[in-house]
Structure formats: structure tokens, C-alpha cells
Amino acid sequence: MTVSTLTPPTVPAGAKARSSDSGSSGRPPAIVIGSGFGGLGSALRLQARGYDVTLLEMRDKPGGRAYVYEQDGFRFDAGPTIITAPFLIDELFALGGRSKEDYGLRIVPCDPYYRIVFDDGRVFDYNGDEQHLRNEIRRFNPADEASYDAFVAHSRAIFDRAFTDLADQPFSSITDMLRIAPDLARLRADRSVHGMVSKFFTDPALRVVFSFHPLLIGGNPFQSSSIYGMIHYLEREWGVHYAMGGTGAVVQALVRLFEDMGGRLRLNCRVEEIEVERRQVSGVRLASGERLQAGTVVANSDVANTYRKLIRPEHRRKWTDRKLERMSYSMGLFVLYFGTDRLYPELAHHTIVLGPRYKGLLDDIFRHKVLAEDFSLYLHAPTRTDPAMAPDGCESFYVLSPVPNLEGGVDWESQRERYADRILESLEKLAPDLRRHVVTRRIMTPVEFVTELDAYAGSAFQFEPILTQSAWFRPHNVSEDVEGLYFAGAGTHPGAGLPGVLSSAKLLDRVIPHGNEVAAGLIR
Ligand SMILES: Cc1cc2nc3c(=O)[nH]c(=O)nc-3n(C[C@H](O)[C@H](O)[C@H](O)COP(=O)(O)OP(=O)(O)OC[C@H]3O[C@@H](n4cnc5c(N)ncnc54)[C@H](O)[C@@H]3O)c2cc1C
Fold first, then answer.
1. Which of ligand 1's atoms lies nearest the C-alpha of 41?
2. In sequence order, what are the residues at sequence separation of 6 or more whose Cβ sits closer than 8 angstroms to the Cβ of residue 261?
3. Is 479 strand, coil or helix?
4. Which end of the chain is least crowded, N or C, by CB within 10 Å?
5. Quick check: CB of 453 below 6 Å from ligand 1?
6. For residue 181, what are the contacts with CB-CB under 8 A and spacing of at least 6?
7. Nearest 5°: CA angle at 362, between 308 and 326?
8. 217 alpha carbon – ligand 1 mean position (Å)
């Protein structure tokens, strides 16, 4: 990867900086860089807590990884499609004294949560209905049915500690970490999710069914801490949901809410520098040369690249380029968005299509960082629930394949079309005439994660969720290097996925003083 590309200010030093303070509002200014879910959540929370918030997004649309592509009459959610913990979205509307329904937003449950198709043709329909799950387990391996209760109890124990306590604490000090260390030891957080699941299930296929979840947040089930085994319980507790109109509809509704609350979203505004004076943030400089002043800045942008590119090295004691380059980054994703001119009612809304290998493939992706000949896929078919995502009689899809991040050096320019063709060919085991009916397609590789989202190493989920990069060990929500700078999003605590990034925004409420206190001069 190339090193820092901090360019000198185009506005001469000493030129009068333009404040983002509206002046008349009397509220202190705050800036949020990036309009992913973590950025939207932070902007809403700061606006609700007495700040005058400017949300800066470098792309032409908000949402970050939840961008929306519209092509030939088809609508494609670019990234997140599975909504777990929808109450975290409800909480944001409540900040403005509204509800999601006020903004026409409808979030509906999915059943099954996922259809898991094994390479030998066996199918496991995974949902939150306990009896149904027991029947599915029995169908795969009767001997494992009895273990399900113990597995759920364990997943719940982790959930109680991890979701309710871990995700709710900023972990800004080592004391926070030491406080929960005994519980982590008791819950065997040092074990991998697959290792934990294997204690309960003997059947290799069932071990896959109950251990694949870390992949949804960029982790290798064989390396991610068993803390992430709580995802099973989280889904069971709150279900798996879909937003009508796609995840993009949630983004649109949150932006409208933010603007109704008085916040400003500025698109096509790339931040090129976070300005620091005597270790305290003073504002940002945009690519246009414009400067905005604020004593509170939240970065929702990629954490590694925020430190490397936006903050001058002399202001960074902890997060040096060298330290960031030594971190372990999550996998990349190859995403193929495609539309067909016919419907496939036999396909579920969410399907996981497994290849012949599980551990071997994950080793290729995470350890060897090579592009394997085989793949495991996640196929999203939103038209199953929401016909409005495609023209009449047509279907909108995306299929994603976990691949190595760019540290592996895959030449995507030469591979992209061939890889997409191979994926479509393999999907014909589910939909035999698929390739003949594809009428539009679009590809996103780890290279586009760099060019469109400025993701370090093209990683889809930032830092890999392993124990030594979790909680206190992850870059903190409160910058360790610059006062007044905070982080919300996948690269900080608690981590990737919509529940993670919305929680990161939520815990900023605990560490950023209320705007009234700042305005009254009680703080800073
Ligand atoms: C293909 C895919 C599928 C996924 N599926 C799911 C799912 O089903 N369910 C789920 O819960 N999670 C899913 N995830 C994970 C989830 O989408 C992400 O973890 C989450 O959306 C990341 O949000 P974030 O707040 O970190 O910000 P991001 O979405 O990463 O947004 C960051 C924003 O910052 C902007 N930015 C960066 N640098 C600058 C700058 N210098 N100036 C201005 N703006 C800047 C970027 O343009 C971007 O808009 C998926 C991810 C991917 C990639």
C-alpha cells in the first residue's frame, strides 16, 4: 500500500477559516466525516445533543457501504441487506421525537433468515423458530439435536455479557478491559467461533451452519473470538429483517430526519485533512480548499486511512503508519449485482451457497490471501420480498464472494469479468437458465472499495475481528492521539455490521459532552 498522501493546504495558513457554526443557533459546531450508518447515527445523536452538525460525505450519495446503485430500471443495495437489532434504528428516530413510520419506512421480518445450500445439494433453512431449527438439526444429524439447548444457553451467556456490556462501553481505558477480562476468560473468548461451536455439534455441516456468522462482519470463523458466537442469539432475539425499498430506504429516511432536526448533509465533500492545534482538533480542510472549524469531529471514514492520510504524522503518537500497517485487516468482497428478465420464485431472499471446502477456502482468503478456484457465496434476492426493486416480471440480485483483501495482490483488472462469469455459472445449480436471463450487471472488487470508499487494503470490514483487535485493543472511539476527535463505524469499537456501527455511534453519547455544556463554556 502507498503511504500517507497528505497534501499541503490550498488555503494559505493564516487565512480566515470559515466556521461551520451557524452563528445564530448558539450551538457549538460539530463535524462528522462520512455518511455510513455509523456517521449517520453519530450526526443524529450529536444534533439531538445540542450541536450544530455538518455531515460531510465525499460521494454523491449518502450511505457509505449502504450506497444504492440504480441501473437499467433495477435497484441494487450495494452492501448491507440483513438488518438485525432493528431497535437501534428506531432509537434514532426517537431522538427527533419521530418514528420510522413517520418517514414511510417499513422494516419486515424475513423467513427463513438464511437458506444454506451445501455443495452436496443438502439445504438447511435457518430461522428463529426453535422447533423448526430442531427439526432441521435432526434431519442433518439426530445425535446433535440434544446439544442445541446447551449451545443456545452458551450463546445467550455471551450475548448477555458481550452485547449488553461490551458493545455499550467505549473501552477508552485499560481498566474497562481489565474489568471484563475475567468474564472473557470464563466464556473462553480465546477460543474461535468454530472451536466453540464444535464443542456442541459433531456434524461438520452443522458446525458450518452455526459458525459462519463472523463472515458477516469480516471475520474468519476459525480465528474470530467466540464472543461473536452471540450473533446466533442476537438473531434469535430480534430476528432478521429487510427494509422495504432496500437498505437505501433506511439511509434516505435517516438523512431526512437529520435535516428535519436542523443538520446539514454536504455531498461531494472530501475531507483532506483533520486540522490539529496543540493536540486538539480545530476543524477540517476539504479537497476544495474550504476549511470548516469545529472542536468536535467524528470520523466515520476508514480508521486506518483517517489516521494515515488525514492527520499529520507529528500529531500521531499511537497510530503511526507503521503500527497501522501491522494490523490485520478483514477480507475483501467481490460483489456482482445483476438483474434478470424473469423471476426465480424458488430462490429464498437470503441464500448462502457453500462450495466444496470450508476451512481450506477460509485459509486461502485470510491466511494465504490467494484467489481460490472454488468459492462460497451469499446470494441476495430482495425481489422475493420487495418486487419494487426491479422492473415488472424481473428480478434484482447481488451475489458476494469473500476474497482476499488487496494485501494478497490479486490482479482484479484481469480477473473481474472471468470471476463474475464463473460465479454466475456456479449459481446455475440453483437457477439452471440464469446466465441466459441476465440483462444487466455491475461488479465491485476490493479495488473499488479503495477507489469509492477509501478502504485500507480494500478491506470490506476494516480491522479483522480477532480478540487482539477487539474492545480496548481496537482503535478507540475517543482518539488516543487527538483531543476532540472521535470515531464511529466499523473500524472502531465494537466493530462492523449495522448493529456494531450503530452501537459505536450510540456510545459516543457517553464520551462527548453535551452541546449545551460546551456552549456554556463549562467544557473546553
Ligand atoms: C457487500 C457488503 C454486505 C454487507 N452486508 C451486511 C448485512 O447484510 N448486514 C450488516 O449488518 N452488515 C453488513 N455489512 C457490513 C456493514 O455494511 C458495514 O459494517 C457498515 O455499513 C459500515 O458502516 P460504517 O459506519 O463503518 O461506514 P461506511 O459505510 O464504511 O461509510 C464510511 C463513509 O465515509 C466516507 N468517507 C471516507 N473517507 C472520507 C473523506 N475523506 N471525506 C468524506 N467522506 C469520507 C465514505 O465515502 C463512506 O460513505 C456488509 C458490508 C458489505 C461491504
1. 25
2. 44, 47, 48, 95, 96
3. coil
4. C
5. yes
6. none
7. 25
8. 11
Q: Which is it for the CA torsion 404, 406, 408, 413, positive or negative?
A: positive
Q: What is the DSSP letter of 22?
A: -
Rounded to whole angstroms, the Cα distance separating 404 from 334 reads 9
Cβ–Cβ < 8 Å for 291, 17: yes
Instruction: Give the residue ranges of DSSP H helices in 187-327.
Output: 193-200, 204-209, 230-238, 247-260, 303-305, 321-326
The whole-angstrom separation of Cα 33 and Cα 35 is 7
Specify the residue with its C-alpha closest to ligand 1, atom 13. 80
Alpha carbons 258 and 265: distance in angstroms, whole number: 8
User: Longest Cα pair distance anywhere in the chain, in angstroms?
Assistant: 74
Index of the ligand 1 atom closest to the CA of residue 452 = 47
**How many angstroms does the Cα of residue 66 sit away from the middle of ligand 1?**
6
- In total, the chain counts a number of residues equal to 524
Query: How far is 313 from 195, CA to CA, in rounded Å?
Result: 40
Task: Give the three cell numbers for residue 462.
Answer: 476494516
- Beta pairing partners, 339: 396, 440
For residue 460, what is its C-alpha cell? 470490506
pTM summary value: 0.94
Whether the Cβ atoms of residue 230 and residue 211 lie closer than 8 Å to each other: no
Report the C-alpha gap between 436 and 429 in whole angstroms.
Answer: 14
Single-letter residue type at 332:
G
Three cell numbers written together for 100: 420510522
- DSSP class per residue in 103-167: GT--EEE-SSSEEEE-TTS-EEEE-S-HHHHHHHHHHH-GGGGGGHHHHHHHHHHHHHHHTTTGG
- Cβ of 298 closer than 6 Å to ligand 1, yes or no, is no
Q: Is 57 in the pocket of ligand 1 (CB under 6 A)?
A: yes
3-state secondary structure of 36: coil
Query: 151 Cβ partners below 8 Å, 6+ apart?
Result: 197, 200, 201, 210, 232
